[in-house]
């Protein structure tokens, strides 16, 4: 049986401890595709993850076992690393690219034309890669860009993802993911001794159309797994890697379908609860948020993106009321994170000050503010709008921790500005009152909040 080696070039990097962490995760999409290859193609899978930028080390790990094809699925900031790995195997075995950099929109063609890839899988890989491998085995594969071809008649089920296997998980990596600190520990009422983080994918794709996001370009419709299928997997994961698992539900948009959220939460409550983070937008309501709390969801990480509603709307974000969403989470005792972006094209120190003021005057507080620099990820609407000279660096810097656009400030000034926004937000009097109030209403969150404040000091 031929073997395909999945080479994960993601790096476990913690940039700093002030809440601005970029933490290496298990790549859940690639692990799902790897499981599909095992199930649907007559190929076996080896999954290599070295957590290093040392190409030689990665290459030796690939060479340490069978290898009849190499799959690479870098984010933009690890593309050059993936390219160097590809160069080493080019001409020896088929090189296949896919995922969030190579597989998005017109990037597939660009990446193929660069010449390191024999094949680029555009969009979702769970059907496309096994089909490609079958073609490679049969000698009928044509070099180029490959897109999903639905199997007989397409899938009519409301939960088409239930037809897929669960993502492969690797014991050796699970140990590494324990090292990453959880900024907000789950409340002890939920779990006494959290030991590991684990990512679970309940859906992929998105019906939203945000200009800065690749999710809907990758797959323009939200596809879900059934709540039963997801909670079955959680139970199996608890058994295999537990006790002490804390889940990140990595759905691109957690609350895309209200009925699904309600059913998932009911099942998580009944068979759990399962301590979990999720990524919803502002379209929450009281009943939903209370169901989330009972299910074990203790943190909602929401993309606030910009302080002003009109700016969010102009960038295509689904309408929603952030004041209501953050307020409902406070009321129910769910911790909140706000993702925020600065460093947009042409932004100056005056603009940053105005954004800071606007953020401070919002009528709600998040428990954590995470500020990133806006990045026009290749293949997105934002990136396609750029004029030559609008950006100043190469893909290696597309981590969201560096300023990519031409602006009125240098990187040092940006780093300082970001640090100030974050620390002023967390130490503001308003914020102290917010924490005190949340702890008074939800004493179970006291340790989580105090632990977070300790960590960011
Ligand atoms: C959940 C999420 C997270 C979570 C969990 C991440 C994880 N690795 O599990 C958290 C919040 C921790 C996170 C962190 C970060 N993230 Co993030 N994240 C997402 C999000 C919202 C969903 C990803 C997901 O799991 N989807 C569900 C899975 C099942 O679907 P999928 O990944 O799309 O997989 C399908 C296809 O992509 C394809 N595919 C995937 N892999 C492969 C491999 C092969 C070989 C093939 C053929 C196909 C293929 O087939 C799959 C099945 O159809 C996306 C944005 C979005 N809205 O989609 C950003 C996104 C992936 N993140 C992004 C970034 C930049 C980051 C950070 C660097 C941010 C930071 N500075 O900290 C970190 C890095 C994390 C890490 N890898 O170490 C970017 C990447 C952009 C890019 N071009 O590089 C995205 C696209 C957001 C964006 N801005 O557009 N993230
Ligand atoms: S709602 Fe979220 S996942 Fe969907 S397009 Fe917008 S940012 Fe991406």
Task: Summarize the structure in words.
With 457 residues, the chain is an alpha/beta fold. It folds into two domains: 3-147, Rossmann fold (3-Layer(aba) Sandwich), CATH 3.40.50.2300; 182-456, 2-Layer Sandwich (Transcription Regulator spoIIAA). The protein contains 18 helices and 14 strands. A six-stranded parallel beta sheet has the order 2-1-3-4-5-6, sandwiched between helices. Strands 7-10-11-12-13-14 form a six-stranded parallel beta sheet. The longest helix is centred in the last third of the chain and has 17 residues, at 411-427. The radius of gyration is 22 Å and the shape is globular. The chain starts with a strand and ends with a helix. 45% of the residues are buried. Residues 206, 208-210, 213, 215-216, 252-253, 281, 303, 318 line the site of iron/sulfur cluster (SF4). Iron/sulfur cluster is lined by residues 206, 208-210, 213, 215-216, 252-253, 281, 303, 318.
């Amino acid at each position: 049986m031929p073997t395909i080696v999945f080479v994960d070039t993601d790096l476990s990097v913690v940039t700093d401890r002030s809440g601005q962490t970029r933490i290496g995760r298990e790549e859940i999409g690639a692990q799902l595709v790897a499981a599909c290859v095992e199930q649907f193609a007559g190929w076996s899978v080896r999954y290599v993850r070295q957590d290093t930028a040392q190409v030689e080390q990665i290459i030796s790990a690939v060479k340490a076992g069978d290898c009849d094809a190499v799959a690479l699925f870098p984010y933009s900031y690890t593309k050059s690393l993936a390219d160097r790995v590809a160069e080493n195997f080019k001409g020896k075995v088929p090189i296949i690219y896919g995922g969030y950099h190579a597989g998005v929109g017109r990037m597939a063609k660009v990446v193929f034309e660069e010449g390191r890839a024999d094949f680029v899988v555009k969009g979702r890989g769970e059907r496309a890669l096994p089909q490609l491998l079958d073609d490679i085995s049969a000698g009928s594969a044509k070099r180029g860009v490959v897109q999903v071809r639905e199997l007989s008649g397409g899938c009519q089920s409301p939960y088409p993802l239930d037809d897929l296997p669960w993502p492969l998980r690797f014991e050796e990596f699970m140990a590494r993911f324990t090292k990453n600190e959880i900024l907000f520990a789950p409340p002890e009422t939920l779990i006494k001794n959290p030991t590991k983080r684990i990512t679970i994918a309940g859906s992929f794709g998105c019906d939203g159309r945000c200009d800065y996001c690749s999710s809907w370009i990758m797959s323009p419709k939200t596809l879900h797994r059934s709540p039963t299928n997801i909670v079955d997997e959680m139970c199996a994961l608890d058994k295999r890697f537990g006790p002490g698992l804390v889940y990140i539900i990595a759905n691109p948009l957690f609350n895309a379908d209200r009925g699904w959220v309600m059913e998932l939460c009911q099942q998580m409550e009944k068979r759990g609860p399962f301590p979990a983070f999720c990524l919803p937008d502002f379209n929450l309501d009281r009943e939903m948020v209370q169901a989330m709390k009972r299910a074990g969801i203790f943190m909602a990480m929401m993309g606030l993106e910009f302080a002003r509603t009109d700016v969010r709307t102009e960038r295509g974000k689904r309408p929603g009321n952030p004041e209501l969403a953050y307020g409902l989470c406070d009321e129910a005792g769910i911790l909140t994170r706000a993702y925020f972006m600065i460093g947009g094209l042409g932004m100056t120190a005056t603009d940053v000050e105005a954004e800071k003021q606007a953020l401070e005057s919002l009528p709600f507080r998040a428990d954590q503010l995470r500020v990133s620099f806006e990045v026009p990820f290749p293949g997105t609407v934002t990136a396609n709008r750029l004029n030559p000279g609008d950006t100043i660096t190469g893909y290696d810097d597309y981590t969201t921790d560096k300023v990519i656009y031409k602006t009125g400030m240098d990187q040092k000034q940006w780093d300082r500005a970001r640090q100030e926004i974050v620390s002023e937000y967390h130490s503001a009097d308003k914020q102290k009152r917010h924490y005190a109030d949340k702890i008074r209403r939800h004493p179970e969150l006291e340790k989580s909040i105090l632990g977070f404040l300790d960590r960011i000091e």
